[in-house]
Design goal:
This protein has 701 residues and is α+β, with helices and mostly antiparallel strands. Helix content is 17%, strand content 33%. It is built from 13 helices and 40 strands. The strands form nine sheets. It has an eight-stranded mixed β-sheet, with helices on both faces. Strands 1, 2, 3, 4 and 5 form a five-stranded antiparallel β-sheet that branches. Strands 10, 11, 14, 15 and 16 form a five-stranded antiparallel β-sheet that branches. The longest helix is centred in the C-terminal third of the chain and has 18 residues, at 674-691. The protein is globular, with a radius of gyration of 26 Å. It starts with 11 loop residues before the first helix and ends in a 10-residue tail after the last helix.
Length: 701
């Protein structure tokens, strides 16, 4: 393998000359630039549309990061759905951040700022006024005008009002020790140690008399649940929805139990918002995960998504519909082999809209609520945040590999799509973004496997380019043709001069449930075979790829796969393992959700499980690691403990193999802070260009 260390002399002058000669132009006089790190992090991000009571207007947030000042900002705008006019409503001062836009009526909006609720007239240059400033920050606020009901989520201690919880916190602050004592699992989850504070859902009456509004005493809707005050059960309300009339609420909660780390049982309860009756359990006959409850517009039915296999977090989502009057539940579209992500009722209550992954896209599908008949309404890119307007149209957020997310309108009859916003038009006017080009090949088990290529900036077929293979997490996740603001946007690697390859290996959803299920016990087998065959496929057909200058990068399971690759092949010049599992044994004992490794691999004390874990253990092949590797790790990642990256890095350095550790003490499984993301991209792109002797079209450091 002819790889490079730090010298960058061969082929770079030819690359630069050919790049200039072949730069793509939007107009004859416009020369486009690559998507560099600073520009990428300066892009605007759009929020979900919130449709007004008249269904003529929609609120949305725009957020952005200023790399120079290292500040995040978010403001609210109003979109006139039918004439396209957009009016900014809240201040756009650097560092000001508002969220959770909502409508109090057609002329008054609401939003959250620093955990408090504000209102503001839609028209006129008026300043916002405070509606509700609770002693504890609130989130996920909803309002139903017909009942004057305000609902929200707040984290409280058992048997405490919000005011009483402040006193509990003050007493805790006076403790002479900092010990946390645990007698059962969970002790920690995702990025935080579990405390007695639990997210609960509340309802309160909003009095809108006069100019000074007031919020009545709040009622903890979840307080009537069994064992709600048990200090050993660290459950929480994960999600909720309120009926259009405001009289009923459905919320999602993991039932308190001592098996919470190895059982995937998540339930949905139905409750009244107006009186303290005990919530009614709707999913007691099922032991899988329930999610995404949504009321029909007439309030008579509730639909949700339901997994039925206990212990399997990537089971297929089935659609269930509950009729409030009869208390009967039926399944709809049960023969569907794709897994829907969310649900929204049509305005006439006859059908459901959902987004589902399908062959690397996230498509909108309409489902007849009676027959289960399905109709795909979109065909390209990735859709999200469906919001019906009337019986023939809906708003949604759409993006593609070469297009950041914007709000669009879809005619559900003709399937015509109209783009309504273009929040990055100015920034991207002179920036080139490459499209995704699909390919299929025969992978493991003789199955057809899907991938796509994103060509490098300034592409010239007569020049050869390095290859960057991006490997997704999961393994039961899928890459989609969307514009991601995360660390895995293909255009960030294409803009640095790489032919970027994405492959949805075995385990990826969107290709039938059997394809997703097939990765069980096969972590180091099917995905690895798919990736190697996919790379061989594209390099044999695309002569502009330099097979001696290839890198592979991945996070989570993709990081595991980078470690696995290091023990099984030397075809790559460099690897990047972000929060990747090094040992399936220590990884089991250090993770937070035990159902995941137990289902996919096994239990390490069980002989059969131990054998499968060892069979798929990258650490077992440590003596073979020879490819220079960049390890990235967040200290607050409790899914993949920091010792996994630290252990792999230690092993390589002790053996004299080039390796680097980039450690973020304030990050978790992802890179959340924009400033840290800038540094992440700088370190990663510098690493892969160094080891492939590639000169990026812009200065990385």
């Amino acid at each position: 393998m002819r790889c490079y260390s730090s010298a960058r002399v061969l082929a770079t002058l030819a690359y630069a000359a050919n790049s200039v000669a072949s730069i793509v132009t939007s107009r004859a006089t416009d020369i486009l630039q690559p998507l560099d790190i600073k520009t990428f992090h300066s892009l605007n991000r759009i929020g979900s549309p919130v449709v007004s009571p008249s269904q003529k207007l929609a609120l949305f947030t725009t957020s952005y990061y200023d790399p120079t000042e290292n500040k995040n900002t978010a403001y609210i705008s109003c979109l006139d759905i039918y004439n396209g006019n957009i009016t900014r409503l809240t201040e756009n001062t650097l560092g000001t951040f508002v969220s959770n836009p909502l409508w109090f009526d057609e002329e008054t909006i609401g939003f959250l700022k620093k955990g408090a609720l504000y209102k503001q007239p839609l028209y006129g240059n008026t300043v916002p006024s405070e509606v509700f400033a609770p002693p504890i920050a609130i989130s996920n606020v909803m309002y139903r005008a017909s009942q004057d009901i305000l609902t929200f989520v707040a984290s409280v201690f058992p048997n405490c009002t919000m005011d009483e919880c402040v006193l509990v916190k003050q007493r805790n602050a006076m403790r002479t020790d900092s010990a946390m004592v645990f007698d059962n699992l969970w002790a920690r989850h995702w990025n935080e140690w579990m405390t007695m504070e639990k997210p609960n859902v509340f309802a309160a009456r909003l009095d809108r008399t006069g100019s000074k509004w007031s919020v009545g005493p709040e009622t903890n809707i979840a307080a009537m649940l069994p064992h709600t005050a048990d200090p050993l059960t660290r459950w929480s309300v994960d999600d909720y929805t309120v009926s259009p009339a405001g009289d009923n609420m459905a919320f999602v909660v993991r039932p308190p139990a001592d098996n919470m780390t190895w059982a995937t049982n998540v339930d949905i309860y139905l409750a009244s918002t107006k009186h303290g009756s005990r919530p009614r359990l709707l999913t007691g006959q099922m032991n899988g995960t329930a999610s995404a409850p949504t009321f029909s517009w007439d309030g008579r039915r509730l639909a949700w998504l339901q997994m039925e296999t206990s212990g399997y977090e990537s089971d297929i989502n089935r659609i269930f519909i509950y009729t409030l009057a009869t208390r009967k539940t039926v399944a709809v579209a049960y023969d569907w082999d794709l897994s829907p992500h969310n649900l929204m009722w049509s305005r006439d209550n006859k059908s459901l809209f959902t987004v589902t992954g399908s062959k690397g896209r996230s498509l909108i599908v309409q489902i007849d609520a009676l027959t289960g008949h399905r109709r795909e309404l979109t065909t390209t890119g990735s859709a999200a945040s469906i919001r019906p307007i009337d019986n023939q149209s809906l708003l949604f957020v759409h993006s593609d590999t070469d297009k950041p997310a914007d709000i669009h309108m879809l005619n559900t009859q003709s399937q015509a799509i109209q783009q309504l916003t273009n929040i990055n038009a100015q920034t991207l006017r002179s920036v080139h973004l490459s499209k995704a080009e699909d390919f299929w090949f025969t992978g493991a088990h003789g199955d057809k496997v899907h991938g796509w290529v994103v060509r490098p900036f300034g592409f010239n077929r007569r020049t050869t380019y390095p290859l960057a293979l991006l490997m997704h997490g999961g393994p039961q996740q899928a890459s989609t043709q969307s514009f991601s603001h995360s660390q895995w946007n293909p255009n960030m690697y294409a803009s640095a001069g790489f032919v970027t390859v994405v492959i949805n290996f075995h385990g990826s959803p969107g290709y039938g449930q059997n394809f997703t299920n097939s990765v069980r016990h096969k972590w180091g087998d099917y995905p690895y075979v798919d990736l190697m065959r996919g790379v061989d496929y594209v390099t044999s057909r695309m002569r502009f790829i330099d097979k001696t200058r290839m890198v592979a990068l991945g996070g989570s399971f993709g990081g595991y796969m980078a470690n696995w690759i290091n023990g099984h092949t030397d075809k790559f010049c460099a690897l990047v393992s972000h929060d990747g599992k090094f040992s399936t044994i220590s990884g089991y004992y250090g993770t937070d959700e035990l159902w995941f490794p137990e289902w996919d691999l096994g239990k390490p004390w069980d002989p059969a499980g131990r054998a499968i874990l060892e069979e798929n253990n990258p650490e077992r092949f440590s003596a073979n690691f020879k490819t220079p590797t960049l390890f990235v790790q967040g200290e607050k990642d409790f899914r993949i403990s920091s010792t996994e990256s630290l252990g792999a890095w230690t092993m390589m350095r002790r053996r004299g193999v080039p390796a680097r550790l980039v450690y973020f003490p304030d990050e978790d499984h992802w890179i959340n802070r924009a400033g840290n993301s800038v540094r992440w991209h700088t370190e990663v792109l510098d690493w892969i260009t160094k080891w492939t002797n590639t000169s990026a079209p812009y200065r990385i450091r």
